[in-house]
Fold:
Amino acid sequence: MNDKYDAIVIGAGHNGLVTATYLAKAGLKVLVLERREMVGGAAVTEDVFPGFKFDTGAHCINRLHPTVISDLQLAKHGLELLPLDPAVFSPGLDADHLLLWRTPEVTVDSIGQLSEKDAKRWNGFAALVAKATGLLESIYSTPPDVLSKKKKDVWELLKMAGRLRRLGKQDMTEVLRVLPMTAVELLDEWFENDLLKGTLGAVGITGIHQGPMSAGTAFLFLHHQVGAKQGVLRAPLRARGGLGGLSRALESAARSAGVEIRTNAWVERIIAEAGATSGVALVDGEEIAGRRVISNADPSRTFCGLLDPFNLDPDFVRRVRNIKFKGVVARVNLALGELPNFSCLPGDGPHLRGLISISPSLKYLERAFDDAKYGELSREPYLEAVIPSSTDPSLAPDGKHVMSILVQYAPYNLRDGEWDDAKREDLGDRVVTTLAAYAPNIESAILHRQVLTPLDIEAVFGLTEGNIYHGEMTLDQLFFMRPVPGWARYRSPVEGLYLCGAGTHPGGGVTGTPGYNAAREILKDSK
Amino acid sequence: MGQNTRYDAVIIGGGHNGLITAAYLARAGKRAVVLERRHLVGGSAVTEEIFPGFKFSALSYVVSLLRPDVIRDLQLARHGLELLPLESTITPLPNGDYLMRGADHDETRRELYRHSPKDAEAYDDFGKLMYHLAFAMKHILDVVPPNPTSMRPRDLMGLLRFGRHFLDLPPEQFYALCKLMTMSAADFLDEWFETEPLKATMSASGIIGTFLGVRSPGTAYVLLHHYMGEIDGVFRAWGFAKGGTGAVSEAIASAARELGAEIRTEASVEQVIVKNGKAVGVALESGEEIHGRVVVTGVDPKLTFLKLVEPQHLPSDFLDAIRRFKIRGSSGKVNLALGELPNLTCLPGKGPHLRGAISISPSLDYMERAYDDAKYGNFSRHPYMDIIIPSMIDPGMAPPGKHVMSIFCQWAPFELNGGWNDEQREAFGDAVVNTISEFAPNLKNAIIHRHVVTPWDMQETYGLTQGNIFHGELSLHQLFFMRPTHPWANYRTPLKNLYQCGSGTHPGGGITGASGRLAALEILKDW
Structure:
């Protein structure tokens, strides 16, 4: 064994890089090992077809933790965030459409075209969302150890209760009432227009095997709004050069802090003995010694794949095996010869710069889910598309475009057999057909098409069952129950082994928060 | 009785909770009167001779949750309450097989082993866990939910006791409870079992009375809610009251009368009379006014606050909250008078299995598809059904040699596409009979009379708004301190001297009597 590292991070996803950088800044000797030839995990930009660059994993950033941006000086390391404005363009089945902008007043005007009543209620709704997300943000640090009798932990718990109470009587009950609701219940209380409700409700189902009529979807909707400016909902960012631009900035920050990064280094197992870890072994047989191992991989992969379960209490293993993954997301990437031409809003325009959401109504989303419940691909899937080349021409050859589409629902476990080439193409066809109903020129505009099934997503990005969140973001798998009850504080039953990925609190999305929280906890233990 | 009559307490509605409140108030020396709109007491817990010689528990048909305190305090056994155990549940399967679980532990184990050795092993552990969880939860059935926003010592102490109670549970149970609160019944059961009919039949307890499917988060809690009945040591299992469910109401009414309460039937309350901001009595449809120091409503929150009390007497945000209270009815009831017993294909002849419940729940997908129909406003073409044949255990319910069959079915949405009418009612009855006939082909010929109760009928005949059997859905945001709405979960209302004692208050539906008892105790505290 060569000289020993203080910390080995498995996986150079954005959270892994964040953790590594914080640890290196605190003076630790850190090594990051990445299986693929590039860093970034699911935040990468790849040349899929010559000249056409795609964000093959995540295709936008909901909210990057502001402390992480400033602590790691990401701007200095080349990160340029591009706000999408309008944030969302949602074509309806009739001639109508909805645009949500980054300026609430303009959004209100756009909603007013669909419903005067809903336009009037927008600000009230935005205020409720702001209160709820404010509360969520305040608990997005390390979850308390709820069962601990230690004074320190009890105090933390009381502090959290205090924060809740500080909202004031009325807001507190309102927030508590809303969190466990369904997206349908929440949105029906406020709005009447189907297109508006569908467009907002879609956020509540993204990445989970649930429809908008399932409890917990109101929470996921709110989760994705944390950090958003009041009145600006569903407003993600992009990074210049694609999401790979973010990963490159993180890589640069990490290296300048002294982190060593090795790509094409595939970890086969975590070395553990007598309840403690001492390093990792690579697929090629190399063993690397480290005082701590921090896994950016999901909990299932970490504890049931990389670690010999023999090192773990069977009860803990059972809990890990019971984590619900149920991947439902597929990706279709299109290289386009021309921009799609939407019937409801023809021609080029600002509407093509933001997210394009095919979510005409909540019922549409629920029906899409119905198919998935029985292990079938949605006949009419929910689509979330972006055309990054419309604002960042470097991503495609002159005059040409790239369009990436998140598709739901494509269940990982199909009722009849596994995913194969025929099913993959069928998926691609359904997406194009669905899109063509709104933008008829799409079929003829396609130059190349890449389809990633949940199985492909699992294989390429190492995400168990293709789940983009490293474990479903449902109420029973959140907070002090994420990844498993009792082990929500980034530590594990194996001494020296930590988790820093989206499988930990507060979960998925390109936020950097789990990585940031994990680094803080690891450093606490190092003192 | 004239206008001058003045009672201590006027109770609206002679359902079991109203009767219990009256009995407890009378026991404390108060002059209480119960006013029931129909010709018989019991509300939804009534026995009616719908066809000559055939007696039916017209709506509610099993007893399991009745609080032991109530049984003891009111000496219900002395007043004629006799419970006959329902000893088994059989789930017939489309392939001609069946799954049967009974009171005999070893027999059930052998039967489960036949389907899956793994499930047979897990069954006991599962039962133990549920026993402990139900035991832990039972505690909250018998207390007034503390108000988390209040700073009053009483609420703070209540919260602390609440917290202590749960945090002192063994970690395994605490975490299981946390997950249970938000999971779906199907996911929860999937963690334990693999036999489809077993999971489906058990999951049914999670959807009874709700507008949710077995895969909807939140249903695992309802499952537990129904488990709580099985543990009191008074009745070890779901039971059937001798003489039908009406016998429960009769026993309570008899106890109330003996304690000095007055009960008037065919006394339909039209309005709560308010003077100087206080409830002072009620006006009947006949024009008669009945005055009391307090008024207690046993009917559901919507009926009470949106119909019986004039809106100017209630704060507008309270009224908004009551309007938002979810009370969608989802169940129907079919009562059959039979010339002969149904002959199950899977287990022919008259066996002991006909003395228990027959559950039409062959698989989780079957359950889920039944729910899918309802989501879009149709009744289930193949509904979930819980069937009992009361005349098998209580021959007095039907003429000699004949039988009565009680069929509880889901889903039948109150908001049916096109609305409920006679034609739809019969079509629903046909769907029920046709589905059972697939498992018992002789049923159609055996039917002498058929009585179909739709959610619409439940509203019109039994006064249940939207036909919701629980006076409001048992979803997470409508439980505990939020039932029916915060901060009025302590049986009081914004209108002084008006109290609530029905299932729309904590702990919710089922024949528990907990609401009625707790309401009485709170009223006496204010006296």
Chain A has a mean pLDDT of 94. The first helix of chain A runs from residue 14 to 25.
